[in-house]
Amino acid sequence: MISIAFMEHGGSEHAVQATEGQSLMPNAAAPVAQRQCSRSRSRRISALPG
User: Fold this and answer.
1) How far, in Å, CA of 14 to CA of 5, rounded?
2) What is the DSSP string of 5-36?
3) Alpha-carbon distance 5 to 48, whole Å?
4) Do 32 and 20 form a contact (C-beta atoms < 8 A)?
5) How many folded domains does the chain comprise?
6) How buried is residue 8: exposed, middle or buried, by Cβ count under 10 Å (0-12/13-18/19+)?
7) Which structural domain, as residue segments, surrounds residue 27?
8) What span, in angstroms and rounded, lies between the C-alpha atoms of 46 and 18?
9) What letters, b where the CB count within 10 A reaches 16 and e where it falls short, cover 16-50?
């Protein structure tokens, strides 16, 4: 879910990081990804269920 969301934003790098995080800690991957991509579109990510 998270990786797909980042793909829409055009952040392939963030998508990869989020995918790696899901394999270990899916719950922790959400907040971490939000911080990384908060520079461009934090509103869109915050709206996602996590």
Assistant:
1) 10
2) HHHHHT-HHHHHHHHHHHHH-HHHHHHHHHHH
3) 8
4) no
5) 1
6) exposed
7) 2-47
8) 15
9) ebbeebbeeeeeebbeebbebbeeebeeebeeeee
Question: Taking every pair of C-alpha atoms in the chain, what is the biggest distance, in angstroms?
Answer: 26
| pLDDT per residue as tens digits for the range 1-50 | 455 555 555 545 555 555 555 555 555 556 665 565 555 555 555 555 65
pLDDT of residue 34: 59
pTM score, whole prediction: 0.17
Query: Rounded to whole angstroms, how far apart are CA atoms 33 and 38?
Result: 8
